[in-house]
Write a sequence for this structure.
């Protein structure tokens, strides 16, 4: 609907311009014929006036749009050729007229020049207004798209923190525990609250010691372990040196969440995860391994598996795109994160 | 007696369902499944009247599970998050329980089942539509098929084309052909339109498999695929192809 209105107004604008010119020219020709002055050159003048208006269209970058709109079946090259021919023809006419009949039709000539100029101004004003309106529309569309992506980023960020699936599934597990083991339910609730509090309070740009991030990870894993009972096992290999290193907050936990989801999705009865952290030249190296299968990789695409987001964050923070690396071989998925110190 | 299956990958979530169902002696739990593979087998084996089905599960998800079974029980979805509500309604779910749900809410779902009501009230549907607007369901990256008793997961990149066949769709994967009880329109919506194009009333092709187009006469175009298969292209399909390929 909006589309057709737009096309219509665009066509209308140009039609009015053209119509106005044709009327002017017709009036002129009529006036000349009625006065009986120089009927033959008058016709030439009318022709001149009409064809000389076309170069204005062309020069104002209006002819191509307009003509291709009208002659949509013809190729635009043909139209352009036509316009050029008309342009050359009008120049020839003008030159011929000015050489042969200039003295006789001085008055008419002046009138003609005035009309042609008026046509030119009219067309340029219309075309300029059109371009302006189009530009404004484009600007507002651009602004809207920027606002859209900003909001999307914000939403993404929020979703990242709230992790609705994790949150509601955990609440459901607590509900289940309340039926049979209220003590376990209580401690799971405490862990969940503590985890939510810590991750909500984190300032994403502030570096935290690995030790602190590991504590958050423990909280998170304690909840997942209750949800998936003995299916989940995590092995750590973390050097003391690495513990003292710092990293941006909430880098490790999303990677671990991804590994847990991925691992559980593989359908293995026992899911063994491995986390290594050590220092190597210039920074902290984190290595996370989980079992996976091809099928779960396919379902994982674009499903809130947080690695894309993590990569984006690392890129924003360090202006490097090689910090997060993933590898999949023999049913093991490895996530490597390097944090420059 | 109403025969029931519980399908959820979290044991605790099944505990809640079992506990709630305990108050209804006319319901019998036949089996509990913790993933889609087991669920397909159990449904075929027991032919239950009603299943409680989680959506996010290992291996194959709840929707894919439903695609693979011939016996269609009544389905009550149980899930933690409402991003799937719309799809669940499209699949004629009896009800859609958001975890954690109360006993009263569960009783409502059971009532619906007992009254033989299908689908939800219009209000619910509308609400779900509103909630889901703007949430685009992501394009499927895989198609799950059954090969005898074996379940196979086909990456969409390896599927060359699809063909409508009565109530089924033929899925062509490498040298194999799988039948799925579905429609081409379904795949038109679920597969990435930049990758799969419906070029004919009965055919969809994977653009990455397109080798060349042969014009037989004014109204007949044939698409040659890289694997040697030839597919008829309708006039509308040809127009779509030209647009996508930028011809």
């Amino acid at each position: 609907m909006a589309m057709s209105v737009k096309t219509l107004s665009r066509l209308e604008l140009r039609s009015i311009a053209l119509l106005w010119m044709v009327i002017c020219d017709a009036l002129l020709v009529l006036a000349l014929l009625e006065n009986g002055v120089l009927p033959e050159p008058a016709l030439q003048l009318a022709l001149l006036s009409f064809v000389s208006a076309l170069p204005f269209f062309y020069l104002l970058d209006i002819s191509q749009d307009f003509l291709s709109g009208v002659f949509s079946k013809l190729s635009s090259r043909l139209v352009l050729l036509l316009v050029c021919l008309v342009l050359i023809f009008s120049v020839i006419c003008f030159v011929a007229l000015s050489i042969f009949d200039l003295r006789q039709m001085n008055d008419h000539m002046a009138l003609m020049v005035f009309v042609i100029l008026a046509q030119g101004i009219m067309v340029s004003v219309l075309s300029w207004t059109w371009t302006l309106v189009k530009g404004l529309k484009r600007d507002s569309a651009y602004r809207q798209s920027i606002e859209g992506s900003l909001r999307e980023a914000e939403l993404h960020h929020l979703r990242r923190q709230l992790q609705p699936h994790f949150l509601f599934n955990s609440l459901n597990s607590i509900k289940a525990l309340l039926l049979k083991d209220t003590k376990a339910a209580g401690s799971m609730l405490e862990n969940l609250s503590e985890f939510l509090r810590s991750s909500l309070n984190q300032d994403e740009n502030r570096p935290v010691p690995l030790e602190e991030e590991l504590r958050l990870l423990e909280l998170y894993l304690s909840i997942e372990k209750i949800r998936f009972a003995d299916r989940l096992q995590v092995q750590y290999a973390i050097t003391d040196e690495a513990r003292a290193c710092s990293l941006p907050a909430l880098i490790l936990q999303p990677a671990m969440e991804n590994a847990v989801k991925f691992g559980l999705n593989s359908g293995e009865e026992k899911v063994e995860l491995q986390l290594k952290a050590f220092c190597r030249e210039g920074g902290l190296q984190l290595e996370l391994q989980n079992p996976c299968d091809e099928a779960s990789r396919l379902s994982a695409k674009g499903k809130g598996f947080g690695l894309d987001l993590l990569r984006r964050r690392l890129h924003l923070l360090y202006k490097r795109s090689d910090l997060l690396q993933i590898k999949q071989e023999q049913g093991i998925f490895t996530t490597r994160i390097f944090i420059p110190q | 007696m109403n025969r029931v299956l519980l399908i959820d990958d979290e044991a605790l979530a099944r505990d809640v369902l079992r506990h709630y169902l305990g108050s209804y002696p006319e319901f019998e739990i036949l089996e509990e499944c913790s993933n889609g593979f087991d669920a397909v087998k159990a449904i075929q084996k027991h032919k239950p009247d009603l299943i409680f089905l989680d959506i996010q599960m290992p291996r194959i998800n709840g929707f894919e599970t439903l695609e693979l079974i011939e016996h269609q029980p009544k389905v009550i979805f149980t899930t933690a998050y409402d991003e799937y509500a719309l799809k669940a309604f499209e699949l004629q779910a009896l009800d859609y329980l958001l975890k954690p749900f109360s006993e009263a809410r569960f009783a409502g779902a059971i009532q619906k089942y007992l009254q033989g009501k299908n689908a939800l009230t219009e209000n619910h549907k509308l609400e779900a539509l509103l909630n889901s607007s703007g949430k685009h369901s992501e394009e499927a990256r895989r198609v799950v098929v059954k090969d005898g008793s074996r379940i196979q997961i086909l990456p969409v990149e390896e599927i060359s084309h699809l063909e409508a066949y009565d109530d089924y769709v033929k899925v062509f994967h490498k040298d194999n052909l799988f039948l799925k009880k579905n429609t081409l329109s379904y795949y038109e919506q679920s597969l990435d339109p930049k990758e799969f194009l419906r070029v004919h009333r009965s055919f969809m092709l994977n653009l990455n498999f397109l080798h060349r187009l042969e014009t037989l006469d004014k109204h007949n175009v044939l698409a040659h695929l890289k694997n040697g298969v030839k597919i008829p292209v309708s006039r509308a399909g040809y127009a779509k192809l030209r647009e996508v390929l930028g011809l």
Summary: Chain A has twelve helices and seven strands. Chain A touches chain B at residues 164-165, 167-169, 171-177, 179-180, 226-229, 264-267, 294-296, 298-299, 301-303 (CB under 8 Å). The first strand of chain A starts at residue 207 and ends at 209. The radius of gyration of chain A is 37 Å.
